[in-house]
Sugar ABC transporter permease
Amino acid sequence: MGASQSTESNLTARIQRHLSKIVVAPSFAASLFFVYGFILWTGYMAFSKSRMLPVWDWAGLRQYERLWQMERWHVAIENLLVFGGLFIVTCLIIGCLLAVLLDQRIRAEGALRTIFLYPMALSFIVTGTVWKWLLNPGLGLESMMHDFGWTSFKFDWLVNSDMAIYTVVIAAVWQASGFVMAMFLAALRGVDQDIIRAAYMDGASLPRIYFGIIIPSIRPVFLSAIVVLAHLAVKSFDLVIALTGGGPGYASDLPATFMYTMAFQRNQLGVGAASAMMMLATVMAIIVPYLYSELRGGKKNG
């Protein structure tokens, strides 16, 4: 009887000791399979002869060769460079300016902070749909100006193949700038106030304090914001689908919309998988150096 109770107590103790691992194990296993398992599957498909359906025959780099021979892929890459560059730079500028504004302890700071952060609470589908209405020449901004009597006003970027990608930039900046502002504002509030007071006592002006002391001290936040925004830019899909649909034609295609079109609409599963792996490589090239620098900095501080 005593041996049985001892065994039960030991078993209970072991379960309690490993309870957190037992609880997390199912979700960890599911993530391992549905995320990393499908990454490996996609990687293999990129080296196969797959078209409409998966085929396991090895094709080497043939799908990557076809991918880089497609004009549409080159358009998607050019659009990513334009969209990503303008999106990141504009969000950093607007977010930093808004953070500096709110850092002045102005009235209604809480209300303004909520207003600026609100767009980030919306899905990209909602954002794309709303901006599609606003920029539609037949019922949006152009139509409103015509109703006001400004009949010569023209804003047809949404249906202009040369300007459509810039409408995606406008919508994306509107949604993400508040998030960047929150990052910068948190960093500004963490700056040592004694240094700022000392600068005031030395007669430094407010712009000089910000550009010479405060902003350089929050440099790591700039890096974090750039990494987050670059990641959002590379994987942008739903915003483009809702706003332009990749059009006119494929003028506003991005790699994510290209991958979807090839894999699920054009029966080019191998090419779609190859484009997905190129996106993964781009994201890894952004995130891995950042994580390495963060871990290296943590070890040094430790």
Remarks:
- The chain has a mean pLDDT of 85.
- DSSP finds 14 helices and no strands in the chain.
